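Case study: Oxygen-evolving enhancer protein 3, chloroplastic.
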Amino acid sequence: MAQMAGTYLSSFHATAAATSGGASPRPRPRVVTCHASEPSGRRSACLSLGLGLATAAVLHTAPARATAADADEEPEPANNGWWLTEFPLPVPKIRNKEINNGETGTRSFVKNGIYMADIGPSFAAHAYRVRSSAFDLLALEDLLGKEASNYVNKYLRLKATFIYYDFDKLITTADLDAKPPLLGLANRLFDSFEKLQAAVTTKDDADIGSCYADTKLILQEVMTRMA
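Here is what the predicted structure looks like once written out:
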């Protein structure tokens, strides 16, 4: 058994020297010697430790290879490992331009400078965040009125921005058959958001109530669709 471990480590040293390209030698893994007098369980543990050290060294010395998928990803914003250090905060990019207003090419409620946590490409993850944001907007009904219009406008823009970017991710990752219904639902919701935002800005209580009633129905539809 000790001879097998020594043979494996010797072949590893030869491979590492061939792939290093003449670079300065790295610390060699410690050779673990097992004696024949030791119990079989201990000999197995020694051999496993030796193989583990060799594997770790190979992973450490092997150069990282960039894949095609990595090249397609957007570069990560500047950060210190804990939070973003790029100011102003980067604006996420939209892949599905169809969710924008056809006349303006954007959405009036979108608020820049908001940190959007990267929750990955999972459809379920973005659907959950859309449902959570829709639920929060449904709770705005008790605050409608010109006295709280500034707060309602800010909160509406915050949650609508999250839904806007999450819907873009949902449409991107959805199956081809599911894309058109999602796109239609997103546009109906975003058109309603823009009308509600305009009503809140004018502080017309009657207009606010009417626009919110239409928005509420679509938000409930979104909650059902994302369940």
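For the exam, be able to explain this: The CA atoms of residues 109 and 115 lie 16 Å apart.
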